[in-house]
Amino acid sequence: MDIDAWVWWLVAAAVLGIALVITAMPELGMLAVGAVAAAAVRGLGGGIVLQVAAFVVVSVALIAVVRPIAARHRSRPQLASGVDALRGRQAVVLERVDSRGGRIKLAGEVWSARALEPGRAYEAGEEVDVVDIEGATAVVL
């Protein structure tokens, strides 16, 4: 019983597909598609050189084109939350803020604050930028 080469390519594709499921490596899926392409070439009467060429070309093309696109979609921007979300925001001075302390309104809440630069003071009504949060105190500039 002589099994034609296209069957071996499909067996290789199935093995690569199973390995993809087990390892979750998307590259294996792309290689499996390359093996299916080689099986199609053999089914159309192509020789071994053409089969291997189809496998290599399709696999490399998928890895070179699809992989970067998938990687871009997989990496989601991190959303800042908690204290990290407050850094860089603007606040309004409620009570004079200097290096010893004061009060600001930040994100709808009243916060204790201190000036980043010694000797610098901000008067009520001024807008300031929050550069850091230290405990329950906003450091402003």
How is this structure best described in words?
By secondary structure, the protein is α+β, with helices and mostly antiparallel strands. The model has no long low-confidence stretch (mean pLDDT 91). The protein has two domains: 70 residues, no CATH class; 58 residues, OB fold (Dihydrolipoamide Acetyltransferase, E2P). A hairpin with a 2-residue loop joins strand 2 and strand 3.
List the helices and strands and how they pair.
Elements lengths: L4 H19 L2 H18 L4 H27 L8 H4 L3 E9 L2 E6 L2 E7 L11 E8 L2 E4 L1
Parallel strand pairs: 3-5
Antiparallel strand pairs: 1-2, 1-4, 2-3, 4-5
Helix pairs in contact: 1-2, 2-3
Tell me the domain tally.
2
Average pLDDT level: 91
Q: Helix count, per DSSP?
A: 4
Distance from first to last alpha carbon: 82 Å
Provide the succession of SSEs.
Answer: HHHHEEEEE
The helical percent reads: 40-55%
Morphology call: rod-shaped
Largest sheet: 5 strands, mixed, barrel
Strand order of the largest sheet: 1-2-3-5-4
Which runs of at least 5 residues are low in confidence (pLDDT < 50)? none
- Please tally the β strands and state the result: 5
Structural class: alpha+beta
Radius of gyration: 31 Å
